[in-house]
Amino acid sequence: MRSTPFYYKAFLLSLLITGISCAGKKENKQEQPPTQAPAGMVWVPGGSYTVGSQDEHANRSEGPAYEVKVSGFWMDETEVTNAQFRKFVEATGYKTVAERPVDWEELKKQVPPSTPKPADSLLQPGSLIFHPSEVANLYDLSQWWAWSIGSDWQHPYGPESNIDGKDNHPVVHIAYEDAVAYANWAGKRLPTEIEWEVAARGGKHQSFQWGEELTPEGKYLANFFQGGFPYNNMPKDGFEKSAPVKSYPANAYGLYDMIGNVWEWTSDWYRPDTHVRNSQAQNEKARVNPVGPPRSYDPNDPMTPKRVTKGGSFLCSDQYCSNYRPSARMATAYDSGQEHLGFRLVRSAQ
């Protein structure tokens, strides 16, 4: 029988020394940060936490609920903003995926072999934008998403749009490799799915980040969709599309907009059974700083590699997808940019 690895024993010992308690329905004791906070980042304490969900709002890929152990880390207090991303672009000359011509040789690997090559006029830089319309079938996403040539982080709603006056809005139309490139430049990294969920929960295990009611006492605490989805947006929360960062209260760790506003990339590949595999793993190490599966698998689209995105967005509706919850998870093509997709970064304590 294998003995417990030394580093795992050391980790458990450190938990005992610092007196970190099990999360469950309780809050963890606040582990003290090892250094002064990096600019614009807050400390997420290490400890034992419950992740996943099987409550009435959850879909099958969110369960079961189970316990993990996570080391403390720093996290950006907000989503990366247009102003922050502009500094990166000005310093490096970087072009996002949405600003580059479509590579047919790469694209054809993800479509049936018989798919004919589109006209060169269609293989132009662009991204996906929301196109509201009355629909009869909520399972057909193509009815409200449209490929828009000329849409990118500087033109979020089409080639004629711009981000003037929106420096403090989250940057969008960011593909996975764009987020990684920014992270490398900034000396940070994308969070794992588990790190992201632990941070969003703020030390508690509840249906919503702030409790068990979506709008306690009628208050909107995140930016999501109200009205008849997808054609009748009634922005009772104050914003039809993205909101400036810090428009809503921070959670217990001081993190803003972990729920709603825009979806956020994580570093994990997507599988619908990730939580099942983690919770049933015989090796305890699988539940210590879990890093996700080694490869992607989405049974609904097995040819397209996908990463996990978290948090929901201003387009999440209780009539379609109630993804404004910490446990909610979405499979997103790694090379996709979208009008409601951005990111934030973390830095390990070491």
Automatic annotation (TrEMBL):
Pfam family, one: FGE-sulfatase
Keywords (A to Z) from UniProt: Signal
PROSITE patterns given in the database record: PROKAR_LIPOPROTEIN (PS51257)
Span of domain Sulfatase-modifying factor enzyme-like: 39-347
Renumbered residue ranges of the record's region Disordered: 278-304
GO terms of molecular function: formylglycine-generating oxidase activity
SUPFAM superfamilies, A to Z: C-type lectin-like
InterPro entries in UniProt: CTDL_fold (IPR016187), Sulfatase_Mod_Factor_Kinase (IPR051043), SUMF_dom (IPR005532), SUMF_sf (IPR042095)
Signal sequence, start to end: 1-23
Protein name: Formylglycine-generating enzyme, required for sulfatase activity, contains SUMF1/FGE domain
Source organism per UniProt: Roseivirga pacifica
UniProt lineage: Bacteria, Pseudomonadati, Bacteroidota, Cytophagia, Cytophagales
